[in-house]
């Protein structure tokens, strides 16, 4: 078996992310969930806050690590001895983007495999950006977020967000 990296913004972490992590854990010797540091994106939470939320809501497991990274995913994998990149694919448009990224990563590092996992059907349409928009407009996202993450998101997005 091999260890895998699940990179993403996790801004915020959703039940869809957690579902993917839970289902991927038995597939690998180890799974590193890595919050991408991307200075060109306007994030709702700092990388440190996202790591803290992930650690709070993820199961305790010797096979699971949470960290941050910057730069190319394949460079991080090489440095850490990780042999696979885990990605969730919700829609056809996700697949097109992920396919392009997988081929590019293979060109850069042909010894690191991309592994695609389909989400559970109840999370197949959930995205962090959609959830942020719902919260900004006072909508109910309790079926999409862990409770601690929902509370932090409502606090961060201001007084116009109310708990349902």
Distance between the termini: 44 Å
Share in helix: 25-40%
Please state roughly what percent of the residues sit in beta strands, choosing from under 5%, 5-15%, 15-25%, 25-35%, 35-45% or over 45%: 15-25%
- Return the string of H and E elements: EHEHEHEHEHH
Written account of the structure:
There is one protein chain. The protein is an alpha/beta fold and 164 residues long. The protein has a single domain, classed as HUPs (Rossmann fold, 3-Layer(aba) Sandwich), CATH 3.40.50. Helices cover 40% and strands 18% of the residues. The chain has 6 helices and 5 strands. The protein has helices spanning 15-24, 47-57, 73-80, 92-108, 128-136, 147-156, and strands at 3-8, 30-36, 64-69, 84-88, 113-117. A 5-stranded parallel beta sheet has the order 3-2-1-4-5, with helices on both faces.
């Amino acid at each position: 078996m091999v260890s895998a990296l699940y990179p993403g913004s996790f801004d915020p972490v959703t039940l869809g992310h957690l579902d993917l992590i839970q289902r991927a854990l038995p597939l690998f010797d180890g799974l590193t969930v890595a919050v991408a540091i991307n200075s060109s994106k306007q994030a709702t939470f700092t990388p440190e806050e996202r790591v803290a939320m992930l650690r709070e809501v993820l199961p305790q497991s010797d096979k699971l690590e949470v960290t941050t990274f910057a730069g190319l995913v394949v460079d991080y994998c090489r440095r850490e001895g990780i042999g696979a990149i885990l990605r969730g694919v919700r829609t056809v448009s996700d697949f097109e983007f992920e396919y392009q990224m997988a081929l590019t990563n293979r060109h850069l590092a042909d010894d690191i495999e991309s592994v695609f996992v389909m989400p559970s059907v109840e999370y197949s349409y959930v995205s962090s950006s959609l959830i942020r928009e719902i919260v900004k407009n006072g909508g109910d996202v309790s079926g999409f977020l862990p409770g601690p993450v929902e509370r932090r998101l409502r606090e961060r997005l201001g007084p116009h967000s109310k708990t349902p």
